[in-house]
């Protein structure tokens, strides 16, 4: 670029936004017809670097608008307004088996955006950029409060939307990996729900026979009794093993009467009237069904197959009395979510309550259906909560369809919760 030409600039609008919001990346003041690479980089809290990049040709005005112009190469192709986020992968040379997860919701994801001359595939760190910008992506909106919960034996984090309420409530249950995962609850609180991220499988509670119905009932009651929660408008949201818990509680608990359920990548197969240890014992019986791919990564989807006919081996979903949204990845390699959804539909049709069931099933989509624009990983390291052993697990999914599914599933989740927790009568 000569001194007489304006310097290239790259804008991100808005530069501060929620992680589930769209943003626009615009480069200006380039020579027309110039080949450029737009690069996005995140330095994770685990000290790893994730990147994505697209190849573009500037238009006759010397501009590139990622929301309107097509990438002709890089980590994604075509017109993909958010491709610089959902196509992110660990940079070459990173530790194997990484999965991107935000731990500290008080801080944003900081995305560094740069534009380079020519179409590059590597060497970004050692190449001078034509222009740079920074965007902040937040899980926790301004005014959301985070409260650590340790009362009545409950371990979790409560997120409160700004304002006096009362608000609808959510009991947020993650899967068999255990630990306290907060970012989804923080995001849901940003949308107007008091959300309790519940820790129920950790090293502290690895003796799972003591984590019974009373634990989940106490958490549910805590939400009901909170002064900022509308007691009769509480939902449960389960991912993976959390779906099994949510379904079981909704059917069999005399205390838990959710207004609706959102079940992500889960199953209704579990011993009826058993504890969590009984569930894992049942899974261990089928450990022979474990498969491994060509890289010796674990495939667990067959541990619950075939779906049993024995009614004592699965939740009687025909007794469900609230609306249920099932989000299913058809390439789920970790859990038989598709087969379970089909069996649940048949059970509910026979019982006459299938009108309560909504199934959103996504081809090419794996197990980890996250909030939108989250990087997709087909496999990653996984710590088994009960044995504290580390394996590499295949989750499934292909990046493009999986990423599209995450966007659609999140919008369906928000619409479902809005309909059944707010609705016209709530206003």
Automatic annotation (TrEMBL):
BAAT/Acyl-CoA thioester hydrolase C-terminal domain location: 214-422
Family, similarity comment: Belongs to the C/M/P thioester hydrolase family.
InterPro entries recorded: AB_hydrolase_fold, Acyl-CoA_thioEstase_long-chain, BAAT_C, Thio_Ohase/aa_AcTrfase, Thio_Ohase/BAAT_N
Domain Acyl-CoA thioester hydrolase/bile acid-CoA amino acid N-acetyltransferase: residue ranges: 21-151
The species this protein was found in: Alosa alosa
Active site per UniProt: 240, 332, 367
MF term (GO), any: fatty acyl-CoA hydrolase activity
Entries under Pfam families matching the protein: BAAT_C (PF08840), Bile_Hydr_Trans (PF04775)
Stretches that traverse the bilayer: none
Protein's name according to its UniProt entry: Uncharacterized protein
Signal peptide region: none
An example Gene Ontology biological process: fatty acid metabolic process
Gene3D superfamilies, A to Z: Acyl-CoA thioester hydrolase/BAAT N-terminal domain, alpha/beta hydrolase
